[in-house]
Amino acid sequence: MSNEIKQMMLNIGQRARQASRAMARASSEQKDQALLHIAKLIREKANEIQRVNQLDVERATLKGQDAAFIDRLTMTPKTIESMALGLEQIVSLEDPIGKMTALQKQASGIELGQMRVPLGVIGIIYESRPNVTIDAAALCLKSGNAVILRGGSEAIDSNTLLAQLIQAGLDAAQLPMDAVQVVTTTDRSAVGEMITMTEYIDVIVPRGGKSLIARLMAEARVPMIKHLDGICHTYIDADADIAMAIKVCDNAKTQRYAPCNAMETLLVNQAIAQQVLPTLCKIYQDKGVELRVDALTRKALEENGFEGLVDATEEDWQTEYLAPILSIKTVANMDEAMSHIEQYGSKHTDAIITNNQAQANRFLREVDSASVMVNASTRFADGFEYGLGAEIGISNDKLHARGPVGLDGLTSLKYIVMGHGEIRS
Amino acid sequence: MSNEIKQMMLNIGQRARQASRAMARASSEQKDQALLHIAKLIREKANEIQRVNQLDVERATLKGQDAAFIDRLTMTPKTIESMALGLEQIVSLEDPIGKMTALQKQASGIELGQMRVPLGVIGIIYESRPNVTIDAAALCLKSGNAVILRGGSEAIDSNTLLAQLIQAGLDAAQLPMDAVQVVTTTDRSAVGEMITMTEYIDVIVPRGGKSLIARLMAEARVPMIKHLDGICHTYIDADADIAMAIKVCDNAKTQRYAPCNAMETLLVNQAIAQQVLPTLCKIYQDKGVELRVDALTRKALEENGFEGLVDATEEDWQTEYLAPILSIKTVANMDEAMSHIEQYGSKHTDAIITNNQAQANRFLREVDSASVMVNASTRFADGFEYGLGAEIGISNDKLHARGPVGLDGLTSLKYIVMGHGEIRS
Q1: Taking the CA of residue A10 as centre, how many other CA atoms within 13 Å lie in the half-sphere pointing to its CB?
Q2: A156-172 and A28-44 helices cross at what angle (nearest 10)?
């Protein structure tokens, strides 16, 4: 890494650390004032945002980026307005900072409680979507943290402008402008520095594809709240309501293909396979979903005249398709389903469809995933659906934050002791 | 690393992962039965434990280990009985596993809650105290985890015997013996493997001195719940009760010198320095505490006839003495005290002595330490004193667990969704 980049990043880090102290002390009113001011500026400057974003889009197009990439990069009047609405929504959330649990008197006489406080400095590493600059900054500000944002180099002009609007909003609320800094170098070594400067960054939230996360994991020294992959399962139990199973499993796979909480593997109890698979798989095929199946499922479907089935390979069970492809396995019982989930799942979100409460309870307790569901679509694993108001991401980790991460995930609890002169004996 | 050690560790890891699944499903009764059986065996085999421990002690003595080391290594009838009592105390704690928050209905109709579950496999890396083998294993078992224990090579005979008793206890309760495994090789590369085998270990809890932790931090890929150092401060405010200040600060420094929660630096408001320092420092000097002071403190003390003061250097402010040495600084106000704590503290435990509620509230909110105290001795920062029943350690980290870590720190919360056929639209 060039020494110049290293110095630049350390300087950014020092300023972020300094700003984080003021942010930790900021009142809810100040933070909300800054967020509302940013929303106002975004609306006022909507044309300029689009114009500057166009520079990024043109450069990316010349570079030959594909349509999906250009789509993620492009800001429209609608995406710009939704950034402003997102800010107003975060304003409406309760400020978590300073909240205290009730004090509990201990044997010695001291009174003990816990207070929610910011983590300090958050580093966000993301790819091409410029709206993450606003969304992530807003969540970090509301939770009293400073943030260092490192977006994709392709969005550099958009991100630089958005950062200016954020800093103007901070300034208007008498908060330090260094509380939100955008790394404006496109040198990749800046990321290497961010993920190792443990003195200045308390946690890294990487937002992006699996390859980005894997690369960061190999080198990071700063702790990460990270999302890896969502190989989500639904198991249709022998005691399932058949109509419900069909409706929920259709939704879990086809409502949207790209989100991490979409179902990738369907597990069906063999006792109910003949009743549920033909109807459900007809829906899938009509929607253009490719079915990759084990031998029992193939048999059940071919007996009902299905064609175009693909044999599922070992690799299919461990693949997050994020596409109109579904792997299906017929299992002997719930234990086989849970073993499959244990072996191939990614501990993201797994569901059971059953009317048997005992089975549901065992599934809830024994499946080791961030979200475990009974009779609901895996697509519900989401910060908004969970009432968190917003999410910085969905964590695959078990430590700290698990599943959809809202404002609380960007905070920590410290112990508070109120004494009256107590000493230890 | 030799391939043989690597294979051995992977094998231990695989067996631990396997056992962790059974442990997650174990009932509270089974876990308690195992713990009580281990306590019974420890009492029955007390003589054998002492005899085997003596082998370790003799080897360490021959190697020229110092008296403090030998003291930590040696097991007496008293330390053996206290292991058994510790097990019984952990049995009396409430089982955290399976506890659920109330279900909350969301906008879509789904009902959302969180359930407390084990982390999975815990790795404990510790030094010479063999009692950690029992204490740490018991906490991990009670919280439904499997554990891999790697104690100091000097305690290998003691640890191997204790592991056998633990495994006998597990077996008696029909729990998998692999739920507690002791690494019996003294090859140091085993530690290198433990801290990087992310597939088989979910969290590492290192218990030992700063140099051990620093070495692990440089190489670990597995997340750690770690304790680094405790540079604890007490600030005596201008509005302090003088008698209380003297009593509490005496206790914080001299009740015991070695614990991490002992005070290392005293900060005194200059408005009260003349009233509090002479009496307090007389107590310290009478107890043989060396005083390392700034110029203002020296002046205040020399005017009162004190001798033998040492000038505090920059290094003193950042030193965890764990010894009868105290650094003292006279400050202009609470802001200067908080700046000093921010610059030199270790975010462990810091206290204020004051009768001014507004000052106390600012100190509580603004000091960024795991434990922040008002009018109490820093020595209270401890899992037992906090009513956690036991502690696996004290965390200096902000993520996951902060401050004294009890059973809850060895668990995670997963989301539970109870649906009625809801789908996303």
Answers
A1: 7
A2: 130
- Selected residue of A380, A382, A425 to mutate for chain B interface (largest B Cβ count, 10 A): A380
Across A65-74, A165-174, B232-241, least confident range: A65-74
Cβ pair B421:A25 closer than 8 A = no
Q: Which of B104, B343, B412 to mutate to test the interface with A (most CBs of A within 10 A)?
A: B412
Q: Which of B352, B369, B417 to mutate to test the interface with A (most CBs of A within 10 A)?
A: B417
Structural domain count, chain B: 2
Q: Do A115 and B386 touch (CB under 8 A)?
A: no
Which residues are paired to B205 by β-bridges? B124
- Predicted complex ipTM: 0.93
Q: In this structure, what are the phi and psi dihedrals at residue A145, rounded to the nearest 5 degrees?
A: -100, 160
Within a domain: A423: no
- CA distance to partner chain B, nearest, from residue A400 (Å): 4
Residues facing B118 on adjacent strands: B411
pLDDT at B367: 96
8 A C-beta contact, residue B317 and residue B342: no
Query: Nearest residue of A to residue B425 by CA position?
Result: A255
pLDDT at residue A212, as a whole number: 86
Mean pLDDT of chain A: 95
Q: Which residues of A touch B115 (CB under 8 A)?
A: 364-365, 372
Contact check, Cβ <8 Å, A372/B108: no
In B295-345, where does DSSP find H-type helix? 295-302, 314-317, 334-344
pLDDT for A2 beyond 80: no
Distance from CA of B136 to the nearest CA of A (A): 19
User: Inter-axis angle of helices B334-344 and B357-366, to 10 degrees?
Assistant: 20
Average pLDDT, chain B: 95
- Mean pLDDT in residue range B356-372: 96
Q: Confidence class of residue A315 from pLDDT cuts 50, 70 and 90?
A: very high
Contact residues on chain B for A366, CB-CB shorter than 8 A: 24-25
8 A C-beta contact, residue A126 and residue A418: no
Please indicate, yes or no, whether residues B104 and B251 belong to a single structural domain of this protein.
Answer: no
Length of chain B: 425
Are the beta carbons of A202 and A322 closer than 8 angstroms? no
Q: Are residues B31 and B46 in the same domain?
A: yes
How much is the pLDDT for B1?
Answer: 53
Task: Name the amino acid, one letter, at B296.
Answer: L
Q: How distant is the Cα of A159 from the closest Cα of chain B, in angstroms?
A: 28
Strand boundaries in A186-293, DSSP class E = 203-207, 232-236, 263-269, 290-293
Q: Region A259-286: what's the mean pLDDT?
A: 97
**Token duo for residue B137:** 């294993």
Q: Is residue B309 part of a domain?
A: yes
Distance from CA of B152 to the nearest CA of A (A): 26
Residue-wise pLDDT tens digits, B304-363: 999 999 999 999 999 999 999 999 999 999 999 999 999 999 999 999 999 999 999 999
Going by C-alpha positions, the residue among B8, B133, B416 that lies closest to residue A362 is B416
Asked if A374's CB is within 8 angstroms of B419's CB, the reply is yes
Residue A204 inside a domain? The answer is: yes
Strands A403-405 and A393-395: antiparallel
* Domain assignment present for A395: no
Q: What is the CATH number of the domain that holds B45?
A: 3.40.605.10
Distance of residue A116 Cα from the nearest chain B Cα, in angstroms? 9
CATH number, residue A331: 3.40.309.10
pLDDT above 70: residue A1: no
Q: Are A225 and A397 in contact (CB under 8 A)?
A: yes
- Partners of A398 on chain B (C-beta within 8 Å) are 119-120, 202-203, 412
Chain pair A-B, CB pairs under 8 angstroms: 221
Cβ pair B225, B145 in contact under 8 A: no
